[in-house]
Amino acid sequence: MKNYKNLDAFWMPFTPNRAFKENPRIVTRTEGVFCHTDDGRKILDATAGLWCVNAGHARPQIADAIAKQAHELDFTSPFNFGHDIGFEFAERLIQHTPDPLNKVFFANSGSEAVESALKIALAYQNSRGKSGKFKLIGREMAYHGVNFGGISVGGLTPNRKGFGPLLPVDHLPHTLDLENNAFSKGLPEAGLEKADALEELIKFHDASSIAAVIVEPISGAGGVILPPKGYLKRLREICTANDILLIFDEVITGWGRLGSAFAAVEFDVVPDMIVSAKGITNGIVPLGAVFVADHIHDTIMDNAAEGAIEFYHGYTYSANPVSCAAGLATLDIYEQEGLLTRAAGDIGEYWENALHSLKDIEQVVDIRNYGLIGAVQFKQPAGTTAPIGGKFQVACYDNDVMIRAMGNIIAFSPPLTINPEEIDQLIAAIRKTANELF
Ligand SMILES: Cc1ncc(COP(=O)(O)O)c(C=O)c1O
């Protein structure tokens, strides 16, 4: 039902607005792994929204919890007042985080959670008398949201350029290496030495000036870039040896995407903080969170003056009651349906084999996967500088699947509830689209 005159008023985020508005793709209803479109089609959502709806779309349990909460306790200030559901949700969340990440700071999005984590890192260094440790290390091709801290540590040039002087940061090299690792299944073998670049950066800046390193365990928006085997452990060792905090941005790798609650669990590497959002509420209402190690929290608490606010940071909607209700219902579903580990089982193996069956398409130069995440990379189309991804995404929509595109890469992160027939539908649509476009 269309209650608007045209598409002019809504300035769409990260979208070529003019092209979209000439050829709109409008979703009218969602259910399970499918979206219904305004032209009467039912299309497969191979992106889980935007790496969000891990338990599938329109789960009644979550919708009911939201409605009940809104009727009972809609909103109270999180500054100086509390409500039961915020404390209950924090306690439930930390049952899934690795020890000692037992404190939760709430935000409303991945971007805000990233900012919060960076500020916690600086507050921690300050409160233990190391205010000289203020630089941050990110990584090329990383996406940490769109706020100024996030784009500073982020490594995607279009998101950074034109936004003036950013924070004092430096960047690790990215780990994509088609020459040595193309068509790897799971974590690639080559490239562990890329972690040693951190030692070089530390030599250059000096450990006494560096507060924290932030990485996505698997880069999502940069094109699904996997860490070589042993890479994350090596980063952890270097950070520990140099008294530098390690932050994992798990906005997309969290909540079952890789076959464990978090990449930190999957790869057995415990960072000092984990950034979370998206799947934390199954994407239904906005919520972000930072899971913080006890010693960081306690240092900030213990060094503040008696009765003072210990950390000058927070959001009106930190621990919004309705968001917490959605999050609790989401955790119930994840736990009851075993979704946090489903990707590590047969479906993950089916996914891997299905994706790699596309290797025979001539323009495919790489296929990468882990858990229920995956990407196919194409050659740059001959005789043009425009990448193929955007065109491929639009053509896939016409072939009844929704995917993500970045440059010449198409990426997939289906709901964790997907079944083999639905995976087959995706693979057939990719092949059909490739036949039409190449
Ligand atoms: C790794 C990572 N960090 C941060 C963000 C930002 O999250 P949001 O769009 O909720 O601000 C994203 C979003 O895709 C992300 O993938």
Automatic annotation (TrEMBL):
Give the CDD domains listed for this entry: OAT_like (cd00610)
Question: Which SUPFAM superfamilies did the record assign?
Answer: PLP-dependent transferases
Q: Which example biological process does GO assign this protein?
A: biotin biosynthetic process
Keywords from UniProt, A to Z, are: Aminotransferase, Pyridoxal phosphate, Transferase
Question: What Pfam families does this protein map onto?
Answer: Aminotran_3
Q: What family name appears in the similarity comment?
A: Belongs to the class-III pyridoxal-phosphate-dependent aminotransferase family.
PANTHER family for this protein: ADENOSYLMETHIONINE-8-AMINO-7-OXONONANOATE AMINOTRANSFERASE, BETA-ALANINE--PYRUVATE AMINOTRANSFERASE
Protein name per UniProt: Aminotransferase class III-fold pyridoxal phosphate-dependent enzyme
The lineage is: Bacteria, Pseudomonadati, Pseudomonadota, Gammaproteobacteria, Oceanospirillales
